């Protein structure tokens, strides 16, 4: 407050002096009047010029201090938020880049980093990624891919053993998790034909045990039929699906297996009768949306996709 009062007082005093000087200049002769007017104009504008000069010096001194520290002006205030935003954007962009682009157009360093992070991917994406890497022109990238494939195979086996050890009798959910892990691996196509067959047999044996342990749960039979299909045993899968229709006519699983079988074998009349039987026996809201979409395409109507 005191500084503001001082500034106002100085401005007021300067104004009074200048106005008094202009009044006195009119009473002087021509030469003295000209000298006095020049002095008065300087007195009037010098404070303004001084203020502007001081502001420029203050601004430049701040710039020099920041440049001396190696930090551009205005950066410090925003750097934290900008850095976080950039990291978030880069992460999203990295996840959005198609795998093919990484191996066709990326440099070898990016390709190796991508391979090292494959373990965090869903297993269904691994096969395509590894195939692209194995066909790469860079020998080191191919070596990374082969090593990664072997490590992932070992990781899968360890996960299977871990799930088995954690199984709790009379607890169906643990059995489901293990079955889904088997199926995800089989769907990924990572295993050789020999390992695919061996793992498939192991999975089927496990699902048979689960069906015996939990006879009231139709999904273990459904998964068993699905694995048999993947192994090319269509007739065995069909038998499981038919047994499901008899034991669990209200569950969609047996119908789903029969729909796939009839479609692949071109048995259109049996396909129609299967869908008709399902309409009569199965609650619509218990059918997964993915299967509803398949039924809608097969029938060429919006009946399934428009129903909940």
UniProtKB/TrEMBL annotation:
The chain crosses the membrane at residues 6-25, 37-60. The keyword Transmembrane helix applies. Keywords: Membrane, Transmembrane, Transmembrane helix. SUPFAM superfamilies: TPR-like. InterPro entries: TPR-like_helical_dom_sf (IPR011990). It comes from the Bacteria. The keyword Transmembrane applies. This is Uncharacterized protein.
């Amino acid at each position: 407050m005191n500084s503001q009062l001082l500034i106002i007082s100085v401005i007021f005093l300067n104004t009074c002096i200048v106005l008094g000087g202009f009044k006195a200049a009119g009473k002087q002769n021509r030469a003295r009047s000209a000298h006095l007017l020049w002095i008065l104009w300087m007195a009037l504008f010098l404070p303004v010029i001084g203020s502007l000069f001081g502001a420029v010096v203050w601004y430049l001194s701040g710039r020099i201090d920041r440049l001396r520290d190696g930090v551009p002006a205005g950066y410090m205030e925003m750097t934290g938020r900008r850095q976080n935003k950039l990291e978030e954007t880069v992460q999203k962009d990295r996840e959005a880049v198609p795998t093919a682009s990484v191996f066709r157009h990326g440099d070898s360093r990016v390709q190796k980093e991508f391979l090292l992070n494959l373990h965090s991917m869903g297993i269904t994406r691994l096969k395509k990624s590894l195939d692209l890497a194995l066909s790469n022109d860079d020998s080191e990238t191919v070596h990374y891919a082969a090593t990664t494939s072997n490590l992932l195979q070992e990781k899968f086996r360890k996960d299977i053993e871990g799930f088995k050890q954690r199984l709790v009798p009379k607890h169906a959910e643990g059995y489901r998790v293990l079955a889904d892990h088997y199926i995800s691996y089989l769907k990924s196509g990572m295993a050789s034909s020999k390992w695919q067959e061996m793992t498939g047999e192991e999975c089927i044996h496990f699902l048979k045990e689960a069906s015996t342990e939990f006879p009231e749960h139709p999904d273990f039979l459904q998964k068993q039929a699905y694995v048999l299909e993947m192994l090319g045993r269509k007739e065995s899968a069909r038998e499981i699906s038919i047994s499901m229709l008899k034991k669990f006519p209200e569950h969609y699983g047996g119908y789903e297996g029969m729909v796939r079988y009839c479609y692949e074998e071109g048995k259109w009349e049996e396909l129609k009768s299967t869908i008709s039987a399902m309409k009569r026996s199965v609650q619509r809201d218990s059918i997964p949306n993915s299967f509803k979409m398949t039924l809608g395409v097969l029938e060429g109507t919006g009946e399934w996709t428009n129903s909940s």
